[in-house]
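Hey, weird one. I pasted the GNAT family N-acetyltransferase sequence into the form twice and got a warning about non-standard characters only the second time. First submission, copied straight from the form history:
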Amino acid sequence: MDMLISTTPLSFTEFSDFVIASVDWFIPSLHELSDLNGWILKMYLNGSMFYSKSESEITGLVVTYYNTSKNFVYIPYICVHLDYQGHGIASQLIDYVVSQLASHVYGIYLEVRKGNKGAVRLYKKLGFCEFEDRGVKYLMKKEIQK
C-alpha cells in the first residue's frame, strides 16, 4: 500500500474529524470519556502527531506526549481507519515513532485493553511488554536501548 507518514501539523478540524470518526471503533466507545472534546483538544495542543495518508485521506494516527523530565514518551491514541486495517499501518506508524524518538527517550508507554488481543499481540511483536496490570487494561512499555 502506498503510504506517506507525516509529522506536518494537521489542522484542528482534520485532527478532530478523524478522532471523532474513530470513537466507536474503540471498545468501550470513546464517547464514554467524560469530556471527549476536552480530551481531543488536549491531545491536539500538547501532543505530537504522526499520521499516515493515502492520497488525501488520513489512514492512521498516533499521538505522543513527551515527558522531558523523565525522558519517556506516552502514546494516548493509536488508530487506523477501519478501511485500512490489516495492512501493517499501525506497525509502520509505531516503528516510525520509535525511530524518530529513540535517541531522545528511554522508554515508550501505551495503554491497551486486555480484551484487544490483536493489539496486545501487535505491541508485543513490536517489542512492548506488559509493564503494569491496570484491571481491564495493560500499561505496556518498550524499553529503548542506548
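That's the output from the first submission. The warning seems to come from a hidden character in my clipboard, not from the data itself. DSSP finds four helices and seven strands in the chain.
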